[in-house]
Amino acid sequence: MIIPLGHEQTSVRRLPWVTFAIMAICVVVFVLMAPGEHHNQMESFFRLHQALGYFTQHPYLEIDPRFQRIFASDFGVEEAEALTEYMRQVGPQAPRDEAVLAHQQRRFDIMVEGYHQSLQRSMLSRFGLVPAELKAANLFTYPFLHSGWLHLLFNLLMLFVVAPFVEDVWGRPLFTGFYLAAGAVAGVMFAVRYPELELPLVGASGAVAGVMGAFLVRYLRSRIRFVLWVAVPIGPLQAPAWVLFPMWFAIQLASAHFMDAGLPEGATGGVAFWAHVWGFAFGVVFAWAMAHFRIEERYLHPAIESKVTMLDNVAVETALARAGKGDLDWALASLEREIAADPDNVDAAMALWNLAVTRGQAHRGVEPILRAITGAVRTGDQGFVISHWEEVLIHDPEAEVDPLLAVRIAEILDDAQRVMSAVETLELALRRTDDSTPGAVLLRMARLGLAIEAPSAEAMVRAALANPEVPGDARPELEVALWGIDKRRLVPSAATVTDVRVRPELPPGADKMAGIQVTTVVPFAIKGHELTVDCSGHFQSIDLRSVQAVAAALLARHGRKPVALVDLLFEQPGQCNGKLPATRIFSDSFDPRTMVGGEDRMVSFWTFVTRVIDASSAIPMPNQEAARGRPPQSFPSLEHYQRKVLGVTD
Fold first, then answer.
1. How far is CA 168 from CA 11, 176, 305, 349, 373, in A?
2. What pLDDT digit, counting tens, does each position of 409-428 carry?
């Protein structure tokens, strides 16, 4: 493996904002996506092996064509078909009872469908490039997704070594288009090579390979520093670009052929070598065309030079050169002096921020980058605001930011549908308010907090109402909003708690129930009187006609959104000698819209509960309307719900 470390080109005329933005987007997407994606991958892995295990025991069942291709991706088409046929010959034979066979087929189909649904919930599958279901939009989203930290870091390292210098000579707009086109071409050609592949292609390597090809043509004789990894790292070494990059391309091409030759027809490996090959080839051809028609000399160079001033370049370029040699302290001090002399030098602010983050001293670059962000807010450069403010949130989440600036940034983030960042920004703005904060700022903060349902929206509304500068005509709006928050609050006051009413038909003595034996499940499908659930990895069918009571409620959770639950009780409270048996379902454990339709997730949950009640003819608790969510009864804790509704004492 060849790992480039740098090269003799050490300076650019302007900071490579596009390159930095691409790197930042990749990191932010990965950080936001990683926790949920890990859960989805584990779920998909479990459901796949559950389905495969069931098919091994029942090889006579019909296989969904999509699921059949899973075999092909690992073994090849012919081998997968041969393996399936062999299992059917030597394995158990189909039962003669058609009802039993139909039941087994239905269970297997449910398992397979569960696997495919788990794949569809994956961000990698939704926005990655799946050759078997090629989508044009995903050609431009898949390069920003990565499957792991090593995958991400290696691609960003390769990008950082070559991209800033291609961006510098071609300009930001052209480089942006070129980068996206390289990724798209690499993706299309990979899909052409593996048209039946169901697994998603993700990662920036195809687009980065395109930039490497362009760098080769543009900086043919530049000497590259690299490490050669053969079991152990060897180096650092040096070689000219015209030697190193063609050698890298040859390795990718050979690896692609060897992988295809070593795998059965229709199968593919885990590394997208063909995407690397076609991305690199596209970069070489594109850069050759640029050089042949002298586009850079005729059009790009004069336009870029007209935007670059010597004042911007000298200090920043010198500092970056010293930083490149390892003298970060000198570079940071030099940039701080430059900013002190010229506070509006955006390039110096950018350079200082990036070096300070690299040094682990982000606080040294916060004030200049906030000044640059403020300028971008005023000029309407929303892309600059979003990318750099989200970096500030990552590296200095308690930055000393003016509340007005924070609110304006939150509004920009909300317009860009970056709600999570907008919420974090509003929360920071709230912590920075004091008695001197203008009423107009507090009003804007409260309105936006209500609109995006920020956790501290109530505090924002109260802060605005407490400020005498807030206009009188805005106060009714805030008071109504505050009343609505109190109305919906799931943590009752002491007076509200004592007023919680128990279902009138609760059997006598139920308040003395000794305990409850709960089995928590995830619903999968509901059809007629049958509810299919996933219980600790095993699918089970519940005959709802055996349910004696159905209890449903809303529960408060500290620091998080409320959650709804429904308990299926197989014995009525007060009539159980031991612990009350219950099957419990939480609203955040599944998406009810996939089962009963609808657009709002919570509304669909109550529709699901209503379906369960109607199919079971069970007693609804705490009462007929509350059990169906019209409206639901809320409780401050699970224990309070169990005590008041189920009559459980522990």
1. 9, 12, 10, 18, 22
2. 988 888 877 777 888 888 88
